[in-house]
Amino acid sequence: AASMMVAIYHMLRYGMEYQDLGADHFDRRDRATLAGRLIRRLEELGLQVNDHVPELGCTLGQELLKPTRIYVAPALQALAQFKIRGLVHITGGGFFDNIPRVLQSGCKAVIDKGSWEVPKIFSFLQKKGKVAEAEMFRTFNMGIGMMLVVDSADAEPLMEQFRATGETPFLLGEMQVAGEGEAQVQINGLA
After folding, report:
1. How far, in Å, CA of 162 to CA of 8, rounded?
2. How far is it between the farthest Cα atoms of the chain?
3. Which of 76, 108, 120, 168 could cross-link 178 (Cys pair, CB 3.0–4.6 Å)?
């Protein structure tokens, strides 16, 4: 059976927490540089943390300080009731660094970018910071905090279980065979 990727919707604010700077990862300076560049760009635009941002519906500071969701209980429940083939916490390094950690050689994750709504904070930061969309997906989680890889037959029952616990799951895509030298993460619809 084909494996499907189910993601729990998660809005990780800005990726400024220490783990999202990839404290133990080789390219942490790249992400720290992007975060610093975004902060400097917002300052250049005259934006302060107390400024109301209409597209966010609150002040910049309020948006950036919204708490991160914790998935321990629903993840443990899923592990107990389903055959989970991979579990990915999307942190610093975004999609391209984190997803390959659970993939076997010769496999790739094919993700449909339109399968979830990217939180407005990321679009705001991308636009104001003049950051390429691919760089946003390389650095931030784009609203996806946890990804589970399951057999296709388990995808809908697993999503129903998450809905029953108040989570908002999405079917992100599927696993496919990767060609020789092909990237292990493919995001369809990425500009």
Report:
1. 8
2. 53
3. 108
Instruction: Report whether 66 contacts 46 (CB < 8 A).
Output: no
The span from the CA of 91 to the CA of 19, in Å, is 7
CA distance 182 to 185: 9
Rg for the chain, CA atoms, rounded? 17
Give 140-191 pLDDT, tens digit per residue.
899 998 899 999 999 999 999 999 988 899 999 999 999 999 999 999 999 8
The pair of three-digit structure tokens given for residue 64, joined into one six-digit string: 């950036």
E strand spans, 29-143: 52-53, 58-59, 84-89, 107-112
Cα–Cα distance for residue pair 88/7, rounded to 1 Å: 9
pLDDT in tens, 58-73: 998 898 888 888 888 8
Bridge partners of residue 177, in order along the sequence? 107
Edge-to-edge strands, sheet with 169-177: 84-89, 144-151, 3-9, 169-177, 107-112, 185-188
Q: What is the rounded end-to-end Cα distance, in angstroms, of the chain? A: 31
> Any idea which residue has 């020789």 for tokens?
180
Strands (E), 67-160: 84-89, 107-112, 144-151
Number of neighbours of residue 31 by Cβ within 10 angstroms:
22
CA 87/CA 168 separation, integer angstroms: 17
Residues paired with 149 in a beta bridge: 5, 86
